[in-house]
Design goal:
five-stranded antiparallel sheet; mainly beta; 5 strands
Length: 70
């Protein structure tokens, strides 16, 4: 996932069922290597978890110096 993922970037996970909304989270910390990424993420419901992205996840890189919009 390039450019390099950094804290402040966003994770968007698509819904898996009809009518299920996407999940949005802010990356708080990068924990894994680039070949096996893992992130500490604060989700839109304020829950914090360790997340390993699958093919249903997209990283949205946020311009540095700007606060991400939710």
């Amino acid at each position: 996932m390039s450019p390099e993922t950094k804290p402040g970037d966003l994770v968007v996970v698509t819904g898996h069922h009809v009518g299920e909304r996407e999940r949005l989270g802010e990356i708080l910390e990068v924990l894994g290597e680039s070949d096996r990424p893992r992130y500490r993420v604060r989700w839109d419901d304020e829950h914090v978890s360790i997340f390993s992205p699958g093919n249903d996840a997209v990283i949205r890189h946020v311009a540095r110096g700007r606060r991400p919009r939710r």
